[in-house]
Amino acid sequence: MGETINSLKQDKELLQQELTKKAELICEFLQEQLSNRPEKRRSQTSSQQEPSGSRQHLPLYSDETPSFESPALFDSFDEIDIHPNERHRTIKTSKRNREGENTRVRMKNVVGVIARYMTALQEFRRSVSMKVAFDRVGVDRNTISRTAAIAELSLAAPEVFHSLPPWDEKEETLAHYACRCRQAMDDSIKAKIKAMKAKGELLPISPKLGSGLIAFPTMRSQCLESHSLCGRFSEVPDLEERQAESNREQNEKTIRSTQTALRNFRDFLISKYPSETREIYSIPCNELDAYLASFFVDARQKDGSEYEPNSLANYQCGLERYLKEQRYNYSITRDKEFRRSQEALKQKQLELKFKGKGNKPHKSMKLTFADELILRKRGLLSRFNPEGLLNLVWLNNTKAFGHCTGFHGSSLKWGDVRLITTETGLECLEWSYQEYTDVNTKTKRPGTECRIYATPHAPQTCPVQDYKEYAQRRPQAMLYEDAPFYLSIKPVVNLAALHWYNSQALGKNKLAKMVKTMCEKGNIPGRKTNFSVYQSCSTLSEAQSNQLVLICNNLSQQASQSMSSHPGGTNFVIAGSFDSDNM
């Protein structure tokens, strides 16, 4: 019996040694591939490329790059055990397992972790940011962070990595093994890893802390000893790494802008300089300066028209961001090596402005008092139909609260706007803006408070009465504090009914086009957007107030006559506009 146990132990040690040798060979092979891989640029044209929000993912591996999606490394999502009595049932596939998307797979061993890290590193060198690289690989950022120490130690200090006791899947998890790798890093190895991250040889990502706390019984003592390194309250990553990571975090609009500039510049090079096949970050500064100067002077839109002056400047900034991400040695916007392209851009902008370009053709126009009168006359701002009431409440809130920092109509809740009574007995609506922490103050107007006061002398135009009417028309289930403020309208509404709205939030797209939709239905000319409300005046003169009261009185009389002539009530159809002139 003892001999059998000893032989099994020897077999186990031999298998572990074989796995370690296999990991060494794969690491060496990957390093050679990354260091010797020729730079190849993608030859797809702009007609084949789609915007980043809807384009399909390109294959991650070329003919020269080894594929790591093998049964030895990953679990297969395709192999599903089906009970014999349940074969007639339809198997639901993963939501992410769709055509054109990268499915996420679970690592089985150390080799798979290192291979996934190297693939993400390769994509990071080619892409704009780590977010784009992780999306292309189909892996979550936190997943890479939890096991990053394994790959970092194998690349920065392979001799230390191979001296560690091999990983045993029956004894510990990969997260625990990552903790051991992190423990094996001394100050010199940490300094080397930091230097490699700065050079782009490693992913500039901080270790994911708080993982690996739940250990198997055989690893409990080891995890308790490493609690200072892997615990939930362990040391915070150093300031330089966090700063480098935050600098690379870009919002979606910036990423799209960078990709658009890069795509248009590449298409220009393909069309005018077909022999140029290098990536732009590998082109010497004097040649790249000449290409950029030619691009700023000769580039045209797809329809053959000239670009706007600001568009060319945005392209320059987008290319600057991309080159900075790729650690290009020069700045195309500041360095004297790119003086030719900088001067070409300035001259082109002056030429375009002389031709009339750059006059903000898409600027939104102010929503004037006359426009509001037209909207009220045609029932698009009215208490007597569901669409007009919704528009009216939205307009009142946007005028009163839209200037405040953190006010967002799409995320507004019913409890955010409260009906209160002041010390003088005057009713008002107050927005609880203290709960918000948004820092965007572009539309903030100083000297105003987040309240709407009632107008007892003019109840027809009182915003508080509009709010009360809107509250009465809401379903009872939508009167709790966390309910969405703006509700969708029922497809067909009986105006005599109590409730006009669904128990469902109004869509963000409809909220973003409130003014545009109103003005189109009211036949009001000009380009009107939600920003037009910020430009309008929130206070009215006495003559304007009297005119507004007169119109509201007429609308009230017309609505009363219509209800009396149709005792059963009239139907309102959301597809059409409510025109009071036809009542």
From TrEMBL:
<protein>
    <recommendedName>
        <fullName>ZMYM2-like/QRICH1 C-terminal domain-containing protein</fullName>
    </recommendedName>
</protein>
<feature type="domain" description="ZMYM2-like/QRICH1 C-terminal">
    <location>
        <begin position="370"/>
        <end position="518"/>
    </location>
</feature>
<dbReference type="Pfam" id="PF12012">
    <property type="entry name" value="DUF3504"/>
</dbReference>
<feature type="compositionally biased region" description="Polar residues">
    <location>
        <begin position="44"/>
        <end position="55"/>
    </location>
</feature>
<keyword id="KW-1017">Isopeptide bond</keyword>
<keyword id="KW-0832">Ubl conjugation</keyword>
<dbReference type="Pfam" id="PF15794">
    <property type="entry name" value="CCDC106"/>
</dbReference>
<feature type="region of interest" description="Disordered">
    <location>
        <begin position="33"/>
        <end position="65"/>
    </location>
</feature>
<keyword id="KW-0597">Phosphoprotein</keyword>
<dbReference type="InterPro" id="IPR021893">
    <property type="entry name" value="ZMYM2-like_C"/>
</dbReference>
<dbReference type="InterPro" id="IPR031591">
    <property type="entry name" value="CCDC106"/>
</dbReference>
<dbReference type="InterPro" id="IPR042838">
    <property type="entry name" value="KIAA1958"/>
</dbReference>
